[in-house]
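Re: flavin-adenine dinucleotide structure - here you go.
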Amino acid sequence: MHAEQQASLDAVLETVHGVIRRFDRSYLIGCQKEQRFPQELWAALADSGLMGLGVDEVDGGMGGGLGEAAAMVQVLARHGLGLLHLPLTLFSRHVLVRHGSSEQRRRYLTPTVTGDKKFCLGVTEPNAGTNTFKIQTTARKGEDGQYRVNGQKIFISGADEADYMTLITKTPGAPHAAFDPKASLSVLIVDMKSKGISMQPLQIQVTEPERQFIVFFEDVAVSADCLIGEEGMGARYMFDTLNPERLLLGAMAIGIGHFVLAKAIAYAKIRAPFDEPIGSYQAVQHPLARAWAHLEAANAMLLQACQRYDAGEEAGALANTTKLLASEAAVEAVNAAIQCHGGYGFDRDYDVITFWPLARLLEVAPVNNQMILNFLSEKVLGLPRSYGRRTKPGQ
Ligand SMILES: Cc1cc2nc3c(=O)[nH]c(=O)nc-3n(C[C@H](O)[C@H](O)[C@H](O)COP(=O)(O)OP(=O)(O)OC[C@H]3O[C@@H](n4cnc5c(N)ncnc54)[C@H](O)[C@@H]3O)c2cc1C
């Protein structure tokens, strides 16, 4: 890493630690119990300028790249302050950073830097699942020039808190939409208070302050100037956000892995059913040491991937590998921490089992690890694509 990049990273980390000194794990647990958004933490991140990471100064941001943003997400998670809405907002707005007009950036991006507005991401649909090209939500242009959006999105994190959604939708009016499903996708910024939007909460067992929703769109009017870039280019814009998404959530996975590991190590030093600390037994040490090694390997991959991404180089293989290794290492760390805590590992008050759903989730979302392995098999190993050869289940 160049001295300049290191200095920028150090400055970000110092600011993050300034925020961490004011909030601890019990604060976030309190928010989870009350099912309320951690607004004070969010405001502190914004007030210290951290919400401006990755956004140019001309748009009110503090500059910096994905490396600094990933470091912030990871360090917060390492201190028990892993907040799903943070990476979510960072990568949901990324499409604006990359492809938004100056007016769109002024209207939608800058208010996220000040912490006034939040974003959610609307990609997944009940029938399409992992296959985004099969989505059915549609935006058709009416005679008044506005889009009318109809359809539904599922598993949308923080939809209730978000002011805007980065919506991936079909636009049948796009130039080549009739011939190529990829060319029918577009990205719209949708005001979540628009008439015709309703939502239904899902009972998702992840202990985070954010909740997930099915979001319904019924003839929602969206102004044409909410279209990002060109109609039909949504697939390309979406792919641009995939690497940041994988890297930021990889960073969060590494952070929560280290957080639970630290708890397990502390517990192993004092728990002594046979009068010597369980941490003196190899059988207890090795799973913890192995989890630490895997978290650090994932972190080394994360750093390399972020450097490559920030240098404008192709980072797909490294970003996917980071997400795979980080999510697996987080699961391994939480599993080792549960075992180390014995029965107490299952007591919510010990705050170890609470991380299991989140760690497991990161193996499934934002993209499942099988799709990551598919990507590596096809794009890195040069093997034939293993999926998408049939069009209908059972065929
Ligand atoms: C808590 C939570 C938060 C989420 N937040 C958001 C959000 O904010 N915005 C959003 O748009 N989405 C969100 N999602 C959705 C998430 O990204 C999807 O659940 C995920 O992409 C998988 O889609 P699916 O559930 O339909 O699984 P499916 O597509 O039905 O796949 C099921 C399983 O089949 C396997 N599989 C599928 N396809 C293949 C393949 N080609 N090769 C090999 N194996 C395969 C995988 O193991 C996969 O887990 C969230 C989900 C959860 C649970």
